[in-house]
Amino acid sequence: MNNRKSYRANQYALKYLILTSVMLIVAVPFYWMLITSLKHPSKVFAYPQQWFPHPIHWQNFVSVFEYQPFHLFFFNSTYIAVVTTLGTCFFASLAGYATAKINFPFRNALFLILLSSMMIPTEATAIPLFIWMSGLGLVNTHFPLIVPPMLGAGGMFGVFLFRQFFMTVPTELVEAAKLDGCSPWKTYWNIMIPLTKPVMATLVIFTFLRSWDELFEPLIFLSSAKLFTLPLGLGMFTTHTGTEWHLLMAASVMTTAPLLIVFFFAQKRFIDGVALTGLK
Questions:
Q1: Is the CB of residue 230 less than 8 Å from the CB of residue 77?
Q2: Does residue 148 share a domain with residue 12?
Q3: In whole numbers, what is the pLDDT of the chain averaged over residues?
Q4: DSSP assignment string, the chain
Q5: Same domain for 25 and 75?
Q6: Is the same domain home to 104 and 221?
């Protein structure tokens, strides 16, 4: 019995040692970013390394807005991410409900076609999409950063999540709503949507994170600095004379903060949503 307890204790110790090591590997770069954002420029690469800035130089966070129009970058990323997230959740839930609970010809085939679009990399569609947007006069606008991702691979991932969830809802619930005189829209809006909070939180996190961190598409479609998003704006802290590391790290901290806030408030729903939809 003692040997068995000792074996389990050693297992737990090894498991926690591995988890702690992985946590440190992930956390140390973030900690370096944070302390660098609080250092005076002359102490960024001081030797020996200062693992706690002294004195704390809060001026870096003010200088970010003086060095670049960071408030514009922040506003652009915020409204693009919010609109894309809201639109993706709405259209994905509609399509997921339709393919799960409404019988129509070729329903499963259509779902497979939609799902297969997730397998096409963004790089493969970038040139055709740019030519199309250019012909419509929408290059150097935020339209290509909102609508195509909303209805593209990110949206199809949402369709998959919602369909998997709606498949678990008893069909008798939908039939009872019909007997009570509910139209398909009322059934979707008043009965189904309130049940999807965990799935909705999961899709919100994935979509917001993807839109917030997107660099490839803004780099293709945007040329005016006033339209730049945060990933493009961070690149402007590096010039031909070098990189302003203290300002870049301060800007990176402010860029990371909204993601942490979104995940903090939605993490419980996120875990529930992953479990309910069977996502591995």
A1: yes
A2: no
A3: 85
A4: -HHHHHHHHHHHHHHHHHHHHHHHHHHHHHHHHHHHHTS-GGGTT-SS--SS-SS--THHHHHHHHHS-HHHHHHHHHHHHHHHHHHHHHHHHHHHHHHHH---TTHHHHHHHHHHGGGS-HHHHHHHHHHHHHHTT-TTSSHHHHHHHHHSHHHHHHHHHHHHHHHHS-HHHHHHHHHTT--HHHIIIIIIGGGGHHHHHHHHHHHHHHHHH--HHHHHH---GGG--HHHHHHTTEETTEE-HHHHHHHHHHHHHHHHHHHHHHHHHHHHHHHHHT--
A5: no
A6: yes
Look at the chain and report how many structural domains it folds into.
2
Q: Is residue 231 part of a domain?
A: yes
Residues 8 and 139 in one domain: no
- The answer as to whether 117 is a domain residue is yes
Identify whether 60 is part of a domain: no
> What's the pLDDT tens digit per position in 9-48?
778 888 888 988 888 888 888 888 888 888 888 888 877 7
Helix axes 197-213, 70-101, angle to 10 degrees: 140
| Domain co-membership, 137 together with 236 | yes
The whole domain housing 15 covers 2-37
